[in-house]
Specification:
globular; 3-stranded antiparallel β-sheet; metal-binding; Cyt_P450_sf; 6-stranded mixed β-sheet; alpha+beta; disordered N terminus; Cyt_P450_B; 45% helix; Cytochrome p450; 412 residues
Length: 412
């Protein structure tokens, strides 16, 4: 095997054209090899894995660890990771841990997200979705992000984890932007730090409430685990942080990417509206077609290693493009076509291996209920702005839009 040396010319992953449609670039990269040197807006250079087989292998590669302590000085200098002391207090969650610590921590959350429990809660989720549609204007236009997509996943999450209504009502979605940290000299730094402190205070309030008002729910069980010294304070706070942010924002974004894909494929939209029994396979295909989790979080080798023919130095960041893998024609015939009949459909939208998303069953149910409810109750649903005017979020790892203006004939 020929070992490829690091390229001096890293491919930039930034800018409005890239965020609007990254797939032509991913196709170009896939055709020239599975691993590429890329540049993020922060100045971080990383190794991007693109093809399906390479991505699947990397997601299951136990040489690649997630703990930030593995990162080298080059990565740390520009990674814009959360500042101290908050990094040590809020970043000790599952996405940044390796076995055995990851194994120990993950076991506290899995029971809350089992497919059986999610199915039992479906009627309640449907009630929440219908209530939000009831509050939309009688006829369009409306913004489906502020009116539905940004609210439904958090309401569902609160039900699943046991966040009481009075605290759920006070959660500020803007706090979720702390996963997009800025450097100390950035003009947005004061706002970023204000969000960070606001979220920390909120998490402390949640913990105090659950300690005083114990119920048989996930948040209460996590607090009890801390009191029994089965979790550290930092692990507890970080896991609540992960639940509140990663547990809702990706679903918000996935609702928007799914709707945009349907608007761009009106024949599929019509077919789904006329036959809602197609929702399960349609959701799987929409997850494959344009995943809200575009890229995974950092992984690192603890020593220089070969990654599919490329020498990757120890501590350099390795990122896996789930979107590029899910459009690989060697795994998915005609990958740029939205095909509800695609079977099998082994997409990687929820990752794979030990870091497979524990909330996958919940996300699937939310997407099925959200799309089914919107299509059934908003006849004539369509995009109310030109496609080119969609403003994609500038997030490094995710895809979605903060606004989705739509029109519809009436509200049923």
């Amino acid at each position: 095997m020929t070992i490829q040396e690091p390229s001096a010319d890293a491919v930039p992953l930034m800018g409005c054209p890239y965020k609007a449609d990254p797939y032509p670039l991913y196709e170009e990269l896939r055709e020239t090899g599975p691993v590429h040197r890329v540049l993020f807006p922060s100045g971080v250079q990383a190794w991007l894995v693109t093809g399906y087989d390479a991505a699947h292998s990397a997601l299951n590669d136990d040489r690649l660890g997630k703990n930030h302590d593995r990162g080298n000085d080059r990565w740390r200098a520009r990674a814009s990771i959360m500042p101290e002391p908050q990094h040590s207090q809020l970043q000790v969650h599952l996405l940044h841990q390796d076995p055995p610590r990851h194994t120990r921590m993950r076991r506290f959350v899995t029971d809350a997200f089992t497919p059986r429990r999610i199915e039992q809660l479906r009627p309640r989720f449907q009630e929440l979705a219908d209530s939000l549609v009831d509050a939309l204007p009688e006829s369009g236009p409306a913004d489906l992000v502020t009116g539905f997509a940004a609210r439904f996943p958090f309401q569902v999450l609160a039900e699943v984890i046991g966040l009481p209504p009075e605290l759920a009502a006070r959660f500020d979605r803007d706090w979720g932007k702390v996963v997009q940290p800025v450097g100390p000299t950035d003009p947005g730094r004061p706002l970023y730090e204000a969000r960070l402190h606001g979220l920390q205070s909120y998490i402390a309030e949640v913990v105090a409430h659950k300690r005083e008002h114990w119920e048989d729910d996930l948040l209460s069980r996590l607090v009890v685990a801390r009191d029994r010294r089965e979790l550290s304070q930092e692990e507890l706070d970080s896991m609540i942080f992960q639940l509140l942010v990663a547990g809702q924002e990706p679903v918000t974004n996935q609702i928007t990417t799914a709707l945009i894909a349907l608007f761009r494929n009106p024949d599929r939209l019509t077919r789904l509206r006329e036959d809602l029994s197609l929702l399960p396979p349609a959701v799987e295909e929409l997850l494959r077609y344009d995943s809200a989790f575009e890229l995974t979080t950092w992984r690192f080798f603890d020593q220089d290693n070969d990654l599919h023919g490329t020498r990757v130095p120890a501590g350099d960041s390795v990122i896996i493009s789930l979107c590029a893998a899910n459009r690989d024609p060697r795994r998915f015939p005609d990958p740029d076509t939205l095909d509800f009949d695609r079977s099998p459909n082994p997409h990687l939208a929820f990752g794979h291996g030990i870091h497979f998303c524990p909330g996958a069953a919940l996300a699937r149910a939310e997407l099925q209920i959200a799309l089914g409810t919107l299509l059934a109750r908003l006849p004539g649903l369509h995009l109310a702005i030109p496609d080119e005017d969609i403003e994609w979020i500038p997030a490094v790892l995710g895809r979605g839009t903060n606004h989705l203006p739509v029109g519809y004939d009436r509200r049923r």
